Amino acid sequence: MTATHQSTLPPSAPSPGDRVHIDLHVHSNHSSDSVIPVRSIIRCWERHRILSVVCDHDTLSGSLALIRALRGIQADVPEIPAMEITTADGEIIGLFLTEEIPPGLSAEETVDLIRDQGALTLVPHPFCTYRSRVLRQPLRDTLSGRIDIIEGYNGRNTTDADNMAAVEYARARGLPITAGSDAHTPMELARTYMALEPFETPKEFLAALGSARIHYQRTPRGIHMVTKAVKMVKGLGKRRSAR
User: Fold this and answer.
1) Is residue 76 part of a domain?
2) pTM passes above 0.70
3) Max Cα–Cα distance, the chain, nearest Å
4) How many domains would you assign to the chain?
5) Counting CB atoms within 10 angstroms of each CB, which of 18, 33, 52, 79 has the fewest?
6) Which residues of the chain have pLDDT under 70?
7) What's the pLDDT tens digit per position in 130-185?
8) CA–CA separation, 1 and 96 (whole Å)
9) Helices 38-48 and 61-71: crossing angle, nearest 10°?
10) What CATH number is associated with residue 31?
């Protein structure tokens, strides 16, 4: 797979009409398996002008914390409240959410709750052969009429073939694709992102995806071991504090 990547972008804010650079799948330390402080995500924006959309596991808190902080830096930064929801059938990302969605519901119930908010449903890493919490067929096909977006490029997928299968699946169904690093550590930021035409609403965002430029760089497979260790340590700390 040919991958394009820009290590840095102009440090000044994009002028009107410029494309918006977005990593649509980042986890802050509000997730149980991530060590990225919100301040590090802000520094990524200030340095590279790549906007990270925080999609923490089963919480909107990290996403909202980032949005509040960026409002104090630049008023016209796009705002996409998001979270990665653990359903009974696999993970689903809600974009442009107004309320948290509880984990543990069926995928169908979760998608209905996302749509009730006027938000967008994104299926992350649908063909990943490493993860266990993946929304798989045939349920993915059953929900295809209610799925808005497929994540075509996930930086943490362990093979490029997993990403290409997602891209081909989306194209066959006329669904737009996105790109995200799925970062859980600071070293993964600013590696995979999209360049989009400016947007404000979910509808405009969907339209902008049609002409998105993808910048993709796969993260080394060993990063998953780091994530497992982080989750173990954070879980141990949580149990100790609860005593």
Assistant:
1) yes
2) yes
3) 54
4) 1
5) 18
6) 1-17, 224, 227, 230-231, 233-243
7) 888 999 888 898 898 999 999 999 999 999 999 999 999 999 999 999 999 999 99
8) 31
9) 50
10) 3.20.20.140
